[in-house]
Amino acid sequence: MVDFTYLNMKILVISGTPGTGKTTVSNNIANYLKVKVISLNELAISENLIIEYDTKRETSIINNSKLIPFLIKLIEKYRKENFEFLIIESHFSDIVPERFIDWVIILRCDPDELFIRLKKRGYKIEKIRENVQSEILGNCVNFFINKQLDTPILEIDTTKINIESITKTIMDIILKDKDLEKYYAGKVDWLEKLFQENRLQEFFD
Ligand SMILES: Nc1ncnc2c1ncn2[C@@H]1O[C@H](COP(=O)(O)OP(=O)(O)OP(=O)(O)O)[C@@H](O)[C@H]1O
Ligand SMILES: [Mg+2]
Q1: Helix H segments across 5-94?
Q2: Structure pTM?
């Protein structure tokens, strides 16, 4: 007889440009819920699921054809361990196959604030620019728009919100499906904001 007792684990996928707070928020959620967090970047590196290190861009090139099957096995393992929720977080978490996704939340951050956060991290200027440009273009959101999802793509502007409040917002979403429409993707538009401020050139030249 099939044991259905462990089939209930729900999966929250969090994406967003580096520096938007995915890891900090995910680990904070784990203080409140019986949740397992998979950080895809850390997983890929610790399990050596990378192709090579790109020294110019200072980033690892992930081997998706190895990472995805590894991830699927890990998801099944956590399902059997009866976790209530699994969070998969990374700036490339769009690699998670559609069938596993219950919610998608993209963390967004104003380009000026993101610049400050990445500078504090010690990123060199080229890497900061590349990431800030990616945030302005909304790349992480676009990657999900290209998928066939049954669930709405949600985004949270984290610019002026502290980790605790973001945590609460996300818990309201996954526990109560609260105010989902408020977070439907499309409302955050840095491109438009910078265009209105006549500042696009500062970021793209
Ligand atoms: N809402 C916030 N307010 C202020 N600082 C924040 C906020 N979110 C994150 N930070 C800070 O920004 C930095 C980056 O956060 P974090 O490492 O969680 O980002 P990340 O999205 O996981 O990045 P990466 O994709 O590189 O792993 C940390 O120093 C964190 O404390
Ligand atoms: Mg992180």
Answers
A1: 22-29, 40-46, 64-80
A2: 0.95
